[in-house]
Amino acid sequence: MGPILCLLSAASFGALAIFGKLAYDAGVSTGALLLIRFGLAAALLATIVLGRPELRRAVTRAAPRVLVVALLLGAAGFTVQAGLYFSALRLIDASLLSLILYTYPVLVTLGAVLLGRDRLTGKRVVALLAACTGILLVLLGSGTVSFRPLGALLAFGSAVTYTIYILVADTVVHRLPPVVLSMLVMLGATTALGARALVTGGVDRGFPAIGWFWLACIAVVSTVLPILTFFAGMRRTGPSTAAILSTFEPVVTAALAALILGEALTSVQLAGGVLVLASAVVLQLRTRDSTVPQRGAMRYVSRRGGAHD
């Protein structure tokens, strides 16, 4: 069941961009999408936390600094990442966005090396070079696929922001149960977005019922469900295997984008995507002197993503 749960998590995260495109088609604004997504996810996760005594105790016993950092991760980190992600989604195809976002494992590894948290081994040098080559192929191989430089820049900005978010979250991820940390991140994001909505006059909620349906799918299917299934799968497989299985995510995005949205990647971009995903797998493989692979799966504390996100 462990691998199945991890793959289900990856598939659910992979559908995020598709649901986002469908929500945009229904007239949902980016501001409404973000606020409602995080608000619904925070409410669902809070219900789970309140329903389990051991999780409630974890909140009350946590150090105030840890709680503040968790809330700020959502308010100052995840909101920016998700905003860039969904802004890019308005400009470029979902499949291309997913591949550009998936450069974050490379960026996390580089960041961990620069911060002294990890060592740059020969295997990782090869993986990083392969990833850089893949990124260039993805960006330069545009043909029939929709490509706008600003959209690609926003997508890469989302990956960079997510990298910073992960490296900061790594300082508190072991001090709270994953579901509790997820709830606090979602609550922080909801609070920040709600405050912004009050200052700017609110968000447009005049879209049709189908828009609410896609928002519910984003919050439940592509936020809460993948978080819970990933943690359940990781307990059975271990973090390294779970992180490697997560590379199924952009594959799902590309497949759904082709089936539902009619998107298509060029052969050059597909080759670049394979290099990016292969480098992500290599970077997650466990080695004796590595610390990041054991922690690589922690991005799912809040994705998507997340953003996924």
TrEMBL record:
Main location: membrane
Residue spans crossing the bilayer: 27-50, 62-88, 94-116, 125-144, 150-168, 180-199, 211-231, 243-261, 267-285
Pfam families in the cross-refs: EamA (PF00892)
Keywords, comma-separated and alphabetical: Cell membrane, Membrane, Transmembrane, Transmembrane helix
Keyword Oxidoreductase: no
Lineage of origin: Bacteria, Bacillati, Actinomycetota, Actinomycetes, Micromonosporales
Source organism superkingdom: Bacteria
Membrane topology reported for the UniProt record: Multi-pass membrane protein
Name of the featured protein: Permease
Cited InterPro entries: Diverse_Substrate_Transporter, EamA_dom, EmrE-like
Origin species: Actinoplanes ianthinogenes
Family: Belongs to the EamA transporter family.
Subcellular location: Cell membrane
Residue span(s) of domain EamA: 2-139, 150-283
